[in-house]
Structures are given as C-alpha cells and as structure tokens.
Amino acid sequence: MPNKLFLNFLFLLLYKHRVKHLSIFFISTLIVFILSSVLLLSHALQEDIKQTLKSQPEFTIQKMRGGRSVDVPLFWADGFESIEGVVDVEPRVYGEYFYEPNEHHFTIVGIDFFELAHSKKLKKIISDIDIKKFLSKPNMIIGQGVKAFLDRYHFFDYYVFRPPDRSKIEVNIYDYFPKESSLVSNDMIIMDIDLARQILGVDEDEATDFALYSPNELEADNIKIKLILQHFDTRIIQKSDIQKAYDKLFNYKGGIFLILYMIVLLTFMMILYQRYSMIQSSDKKEIGILRALGWSIKDVIVLKIGESFIVAIFAFLLGFILAFIYVFFLNAPLLGAIFYGYSNLPTDIVLNKSVDFSAVFLLFLFYILPFMAAVLIPAWRSSVIDPLEAMR
Fold first, then answer.
1. Predicted local confidence at residue 348, as pLDDT
2. Same domain for 89 and 175?
C-alpha cells in the first residue's frame, strides 16, 4: 500500500504533467462515453421490451392467404379452446390506419374492456378510467406520438376517421398513454373493439388474429403441433420467437458498435504508446534525481503506472457518468434513432434507468487493461535510464 508521501508526490507530478495527460484524458473519456452509451441504451431497451413481453400471449394465431395475413373467423376460437394447456383465447382487432395526405399511420387496437383477462399493462392503463363513461360515446386513448401528430394538425379534442366505406366517424380523445410506455405505445390508439371494427372494416364475425394464453411453457411444443393440425393456413407466432428476434436485433446493432470500438481502441492504444514513449529531457532529469535519491526501478515504474492509472480511472468515470446522463436524462438523441429504427411518428421515449453492472465491469476491463499495457513498456524504458546520464 503506497504511503501518504508517495501519493502526495504522485498527485503533484500528475498536476505538473497535466498538459501532457490532457489530450489522452479527453480522448479516453470520449471512447468510454460512446461505448457506455451504446451498452446503457441497448440494455435499457431490452429490459423494457422484456417487461412488455411478459404480458404478451404465448401464441398469436394469424390466418394466411397468398402469403398475406387476412381476417380470422371467430368460430375458430372453439377449436383453440379445446386444446389441452390453453387457458384462454382472445380474439383481437387491430390494424394500421393511414393518414393519406402525408402517408403517416396509426396503430388502432380494439379492446373488449370487459374481457381483459391477461393484459396487465392494459389493465393498468384503464384502471383509472370510468368504463361506462368511456363507452357512452366514441372515445380513444392515444400514444404520445399520435398526440404530437394530431396537435400539429389542430386535432386537440377529437379526430375524424374515414372507414373503408368512406363514411366519417368522429372519435373523441379521452386520455393519453404515459411517456414511460412510449416504446410500445407511441403510435397506438386504443378504442372499443366494435368501434375499431367499423374503422378498420373488420366484419362482426371475424377478428384480426387470436391471442392464446398458456401458463405452462413445457406444453408449448405440443400446443403448436395441435394448432397446426387444426388449421394448415395459419401463421403461429410464439412469444419466445419475438424475444429472440429482438435479442438478435440489439445484439447485431450493439456488435457493430463493438467492432468499431475495438478498431478505435486499438488505434488509440498505438497513439497512447507513442505518446508515452516520447521521453523528454525534463522527464529524464526527474527520473535521474529520483534514482539518485534512492528510488528503485520498481518504484519509478509504480510511479509512472500510477500516474497513467489515475488519468484512466477519472476518464472512465467521467465518460460513464456523461453516458448515463445522455441516455437516461437526455433520451440519447441521434444514437437513440439508430436503435429505435424507423418511426413514422415522432418519438419521445422515456427509458427506465436500468444498468447491467456485469457489462460495465467488462467494459472497464476492456478499457483499463489495454490502457495499462500500452503504458507499461514506456514506463519501464523511462525507469531504467542511468541516473548520471539523465542528470547531465
């Protein structure tokens, strides 16, 4: 353990060489900031999506015709309910409604407000709603992206929909989704299922698809086989398939940044090695004086390594703190657009503050070990200088 005098001297030397370390400090901070931002944003989005998927059905059944999804007859529900392991079958009505003047679209979701058996998120949304009042006239709950879009066109209290028969249906804006749910509800509109049928042109005896709930994951394969045997013209989407697709997407995008990071880090380490290999005459005199005063080669190496280590530690902490603020308080402008992907409506996503500390620790190792390796050889070269030659 270094004594107090050694630490005092170390910080005095660090202050004296501050100009030398300043460029390395800023570049290190920038590198840590960029990769930390990617890791924090990717992990936060994955955690939010995992929480959202928990309330999703184990199976989604769509009817296919000519490679396209078409409406499903409601009588299919009787066959699905007869399958052992399926505890509930819910017909769903949803679809995209296009705003023709500029080709934006909303996602309309029709809900039977008296049969919300499994959707915890929807239950939470409507928990404070007077359902009788909501259903007394055409009402809807809209996402933040839809709100911003309608405000731009001065639809503050209602919006007029045009169903396929070209009639007009005026629907009042009852409430808004909170910003915390914008990841999944940004372009979403929730309304009564019968009203959604009218706007989307879905017949009364049909649904967009079916949601099947099964509490036992071990029965998933058997249920899937029985579903295929009942109807061959179906597409069966499992919750696990959706999770895998999201994981692949985020791992792909995060992997691209990791490759770029490794290239930049390698380049930075070469610059770092070259920078600390340049031993100036003043540095030689300092080392010569220390060696003449009785310092060993090991002591000089520890001093030089300690000097660089402090720079690296403070750069890492500053870079991570800036990344945390950038992602969770500023909502990651520019970088967020890369991970959110294309959005037809403006997004204002509020991320839950979630940090994967194991990933942060790995990032620290990937940063600090190459940094110290690049400094070690120059530190050794400077410490073995002959004292008499250095002081000349």
1. 63
2. yes
